[in-house]
Amino acid sequence: MKNRSRIYIIAIIFPIIILLAMSFLPVMTYLYGIDILLTTQPLDPRDLFRGDYVSLRFTINEVDRSLFPDELKFEPTFEEYRNKDLYAILTKKGEYYVVDRLSFTKPQHPYYLKAKVNLYAPLNEEYLRTVYVNYQIDRYFVPERTGKDLEELARKGQLVARVKIWRGYPLLISVFPKKV
What we know:
Mean pLDDT: 83
Low-confidence stretches: 44-49
Largest sheet: 3 strands, antiparallel
Distance between the termini: 70 Å
Strand content: 25-35%
Shape: globular
Strand order of the largest sheet: 1-10-11
Radius of gyration: 20 Å
Helix content: 25-40%
């Protein structure tokens, strides 16, 4: 009988532990993360508002190929490095943060984001000036039927996002109109 009650207790506790583990990173980022401001870019109006969220694209998503590590630019080292973790090191330019460079080494200072890039060839092609970098902060959820104003501002590239970062993990806190 004792074994059976232990199994029931484990069956109840295990999902709770999973849920707590899933919320650990966002909660820690919210509590201990540092605030940064990012500017948005205009998007095709057909893709902006789907249901109850606004799709966002940030200026830091388009990164000049010169900011990537040299190992990704040349054929001999490309295959070895293309699937390694990348970190976008951020620097403040005016009020907003921009990408200073990308690195394979995790930075010591707190202003960086873990980056995802899908590369299929070395970054040495002349036609390739910028590369899309994903930080997984491209959606902002809004209350039902309240996204029209944000949609219009996003279409014009006039939104600013307040993001908290903690150990490279971004958490989109709010979106508001850019000061003119």
